[in-house]
Design a protein that fits this description.
The chain has 360 residues and is of the alpha/beta class. The protein folds into 2 domains: 1-107 and 258-360, Isopropylmalate Dehydrogenase (3-Layer(aba) Sandwich); 118-255, Isopropylmalate Dehydrogenase, CATH 3.40.718. The protein has helices spanning 14-32, 45-51, 57-64, 88-99, 122-125, 163-178, 194-207, 220-229, 241-250, 252-255, 292-305, 309-324, 345-359, and strands at 2-10, 35-40, 68-73, 103-109, 129-135, 143-147, 156-158, 183-188, 214-219, 236-239, 264-266, 271-273, 327-328, 341-342. Strands 2-1-3-12-11-4-5-10-8-9 form a 10-stranded mixed β-sheet, sandwiched between helices. A two-stranded antiparallel ribbon has the order 6-7. Strands 13-14 form a two-stranded parallel sheet. 50% of the residues are buried. The structure holds nicotinamide-adenine-dinucleotide (NAD), 3-isopropylmalic acid and manganese (II) ion (MN). Residues 245, 249 line the site of manganese (II) ion (MN). Belongs to the isocitrate and isopropylmalate dehydrogenases family. LeuB type 1 subfamily. The record marks 141, 189 as: Important for catalysis. It is found in: Cytoplasm.
Amino acid sequence: MKLNIAVLAGDGIGPEVTREATTILRAVAEFGGHDFVFTPALIGGVAITGTGGPLPQATLDIALASDAVVLGAVGDNKFNALSPDKRPEAGLLQIRQALGGFANLRPSVAYSALAGNSPLRPEVTAGADILFVRELLGGLYFGAPRWWNRDENEAINTMRYTKNEIVRVARIAFELATRRKKKVTSVDKANVLEVSQLWRATVTEIAAEYPEVTLEHQLVDSMAMHLMNTPRSFDVVLTENLFGDILSDESGVITGSLGMLPSATIGGTVNLYEPVHGSAPDIAGTGKANPLGAILTAAMVLRHSAGLEADAAAIEAAVAQVLATGARTADIARGGDANQQLVSTQEMGKLVHQALAQSL
Ligand code: NAD
Ligand code: IPM
Ligand code: MN
């Protein structure tokens, strides 16, 4: 099959991890006789430096003409003084909006080889497999009004959702739950926020269409604790944009590292694929970045944009296999573990490639 993939590597460790992810996609194409065409384009800080803005029109054109967009990460401390609409992150929000995907799927899977890496006890995390469905185009990120005029002692962001925006993401969460453990946990702040009351009422209404799925509601503050105490009790976690941003990063604790988490954004004209982590300026250029979140994101490309489920599963199995051998980037390395072997970003990518080559 033919697949046009726009590659927006971005800033910091973005290019480092994206290189490993595209190498894996190339391998799948080669073994399967597919024609994957990769087109690089600028986004984020490198786009500001190169073109004056975080999302050049050329990038948007390439992305909209592609079958899938793979994004590394954006963000560079040198732009910290800019207002939100001019920063690298603005390019990411703009492209999300332009591609139209509203359901950001963020799986958090506790790989058994990493059971000792979480500060949570192994018996707490063993077998945890959560799918966050984060609404991606609404809430505080996009609500108007929003402003801070720098000389004023007041600033505004607006949390706004329409019923339709909640309905469409809720349906995706329930559909996905029917193919999993048939449980949806909807997270809100309905004890305080009107938006959350609409959220809760709407999700409850949609749940009636899926009688085989159990729905529970949780308030976001206590949910942050339940996630750490009983991660195995969750299946699909459905929530609004900012709560999903925060809780999915928190779930990196269950898996052992934020660097392990992939994501796919579906529901729009072109799906967008990005690891959950950011540009990690603290380790950029050191070869310490964990490419597995980006590689697992590549698996999601195959699953959600190419219908290549077997290849997606093969990548995930290759990752599990490599972890089982003890290969560890610095973020998942552990003092006192004699079986582990510290590897760089590139070495980790190569090991997954080798394991995959044997299975394809
Ligand atoms: P971050 O996710 O970049 O890093 C948080 C911590 O996790 C750091 O200590 C980092 O070294 C570590 N980490 C992250 N990914 C890792 C990986 N693959 N391997 C090993 N360690 C990893 O978050 P931050 O530090 O809060 O933000 C840095 C910049 O990234 C900011 O500009 C932020 O806006 C941006 N950001 C971008 C995205 C994105 O492009 N999707 C997501 C989150 C943050
Ligand atoms: C993420 C990031 C982004 C978000 C930022 C960089 C705009 O944190 O993808 O999780 O908040 O959505
Ligand atoms: Mn985030």
